[in-house]
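Entry type: protein chain
Record version: 2
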Amino acid sequence: MGVRPRMTVLAAVVTALGLGVAGCGQQSRVSPGSQPAPPGPGLTAEEVRHEDATTAWAGGYCGAVSELVRSFSEMPSIDPSTPQEASRTSSELLGSMIGGLDRTLDGLDRLARAPVADGDRIKEQAVTAYTNIRDRAVGAKQQLDAATTEEASRAAIGSVRAPLDEIGRISLLDGFDAVPELKEASLKAPQCTELTDSGAAPRFDPGTP
């Protein structure tokens, strides 16, 4: 089963959007840890270096996707008091989401070649998925920003749901479980454990009631 941090903000956002319709951070450089682990039983020095490189790569991947998590933690609230306010604040929300996607895509783009088989394929699949969601979010934001009437605002608000629903279905480490080396590395890299620890931030929850 893929690793998926809690995303309660998405339910809150969709609820707020429903009310509106009815009522109207650069990726840090990755450190693989303090010192390389000493060779374990049966491991050569080269194998240990490979493990360290894999952990560093997984940490870089997790550091990149954590930017998307951070954008949700900073996401503004939607004001459903009027269609115009719902439209304006929905645009701000999408702007925060687009910024997080941009930082995530930049971080993934700057990852070195994966030291394990399938690593680059997993990364490219993630890039494609995030790019498609970003494109739809940009289109929805443009529609919101262009709305000048109450009717147009109501129609534009409906377009916000699709990219939010899509991001809600994303498993941040999709594919890692199918590659034993990456699965193991994700349990060691601090950037990954921050994403997967059920009691730790960051998570998809900006504190929305």
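Comment: The two ends are 28 Å apart (CA to CA).
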